[in-house]
Specification:
105 residues, alpha+beta, four-stranded antiparallel sheet, 3 helices, 6 strands, rod-shaped, binds zinc ion
Length: 105
């Protein structure tokens, strides 16, 4: 997926357009250009959907967190901390971490 810097629209494939470049002898020469299907801008970049909230983010940003956006990762960490605090005592948490439980966080 791509996002357009101009109109912020998300699209799957850029529109292919033939840009006329003049004549070479008798033949018209075109260069293939790619642009936003919505506004025609060529200022667009790869984007990816966050596995958590479904919003679209810069592909590099999403790659940093394995498919999630930063806000979702923070939220997930918070929820996990709450769950752990509700479920285990501090001593139990220390034990689990130290002993490297198979399903430990
Ligand atoms: Zn656009
Ligand atoms: Zn998210």
């Amino acid at each position: 997926m791509y996002i357009c810097s101009e109109c912020r629209r998300i699209f799957e494939e850029a529109t292919e357009v033939k840009d006329f470049r003049g004549y070479y002898g008798e033949t018209a020469a075109y260069e293939l250009m790619y642009e936003c299907p919505c506004c025609g801008s060529n200022d667009y970049y790869p984007t990816e959907e966050c596995a958590g909230c479904g919003e679209y983010f810069d592909q590099d940003e999403i790659a940093l967190y394995d498919g999630f956006c930063e806000a979702c990762v923070r939220e997930l960490e918070g929820r996990l901390e709450d769950l752990v605090a509700e479920t285990f005592t501090l001593k139990e948490v220390r034990y689990i971490k130290k002993n490297n439980f198979r399903y430990a966080f």
